[in-house]
Structures are given as C-alpha cells and as structure tokens.
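Lab channel / #folding
Pinned by the channel admin:
"Please post every new chain as: sequence first, then the structure tokens as a reply. Keep commentary short and put observations after the output so the thread stays searchable."

First post following the new format, from NK:
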Amino acid sequence: MAVKRKSTGEIASTDHGVRTKASARNVNLAARQKIDSSVKSAKRAFEVLEFFEEHQRAASAIEVANALRFPQSSTSVLMRTMTSLGYLRYDSSRRNYIPTARVSMLGHWLSPALFERGRLINLMEDLSNRTNETIMVGVQTGLTAQYIHVIQAKLPMRLYVKAGTLRPLGRSALGYALLSNYKDQEVRRIVKLLNGHEPDLARHIDVKELLTELANVRRKGHAFSLNLVTPGAGAVAMNLPRIAESQQPLVICVAGLTDALIRQEQDIADLMRRTIDFHLSD
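Reply from TO:
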C-alpha cells in the first residue's frame, strides 16, 4: 500500500489501488452471478417443458414446482414469463398451464417422427406394450449420449428415466450402440477427448476394453449394460436404421431392473429386432 505525506506532516495511506482491485473483483463476481442465474433460468424452462412432455396434461405452477423441486415463487414467475412469450397457455378458471402449439412446432422440421404419431412413436409404443419396460430413443450429443424421448415402464418395480437425461458415451448401453457405428481409429480419438475432460483418473476409459466391447456389440447386433450408470438397472440398446424423419443416427433402448434383463437379454433383443423390422422397413 502506498503512503503520502499530508501538508500537516502526518502520514496517511493511499488505498485507491486496493479499492480499484476490489471493485473489479466485485464487478466480475456480479457478472458471473448474473450469468449463472440466466443459465439456471434457461435450464429450468427446458425442465418445465420436459415435465409437460412426460405427463401430457395441464398442471399448476405448484404441481410443477413440487415435481421438479423448484422454489414455488420462482416457478410461478418463470411460467408466467413462458406464457407471455407464447410457450405456455394459462387457464385462469382452472389455474393451470399447458404448452401451446408453438412448442410442438419448434423441432418439427428436425425430426417429425418424434413429434407426430409416426413410425418411430409407433415402434416405441409397441415395445412398451410388449415388454412393459422403459423404452427410450437416444442420440449422440457432443461427447455424451442423451435420451430424447421416453415411454415410462408400466411395472410396479420399474426404472424411471426422464427425457433429456444424459448418459456417458463410453460407459452405457446407449453410448456403446452409438460408438459401434465408428471405426476403431475414430473411437480412439473420441476416448482421448473423453479422458481429457475427466479429471478423475480412476474414471478414465480403457480404450482396449472399449474396443472389445464394441466388437461384441457389432457381432451381437445390440449393446447390453448392467449397473454402469444406475445400480440395479441396465439396458439393451440397438441402432435403428437411418430413417428420413431424422437427421441423426438413433438408438432405441429397453431398460429395466438387472434381474429381469439378465434373464431376458436375448429375448428382448430378438423382440426389438422384429419390431424394428415391422415398423421401419421401407
């Protein structure tokens, strides 16, 4: 800290530089907090839309807040904002909300089969009725795998998965199925990127083990995983043939509890193959 001599001969400190640095830190902190708040609001808006996608009915702000574990006051503000922007419609007589047609049209141009009762939805519903297990369709999103549409299981003891859920690309049935479409050289490049983003060395992917797993997926025609992401649960995953309704490779999964999947892996895979052929054959 610099000092200067007053005209009276006394010594006084000069803390202008300290105040300037402190002010800069406060400004940066405020800016980061504003960005974090905006990101949180955006994330919650998508989670509200995914709530309606799952439940497919009108709901009050309190019900949405309780289901998503959001603060009720901020949820009400968020849903009123989404209403003013045209994404939700508010029924004042029932005091509930429901998405507008604007929401259904947002992704229509990308994947009509996911938004209409087309071949892909029929395929998922058929597998749901035949297995009573959780049925999911997933895609690769950057270095992760993501479920983009889910039909929940009908069994009393079941696996619950939300649409939008991310799965590790190198440690899940969905990820194995997606990676099986790549050549080994490209898989090695992806693993290098994945490990580079993982600070925990214990969670690094062994590329040799992964390549062996992918060879099994290609040989069997389906991927199978148990207890990799959710203890006591697993999934059978199968690549779908390229269809005109989607611009991305799609994978369909049948997920359930470990004991059932161990007994029924091959039966489920055979059923998936037959059902895919029935609904998606040109």
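NK: Residues 1-13 have pLDDT under 50 and may be disordered.
TO: also worth noting, The chain has two domains: 12-102, 107-280.
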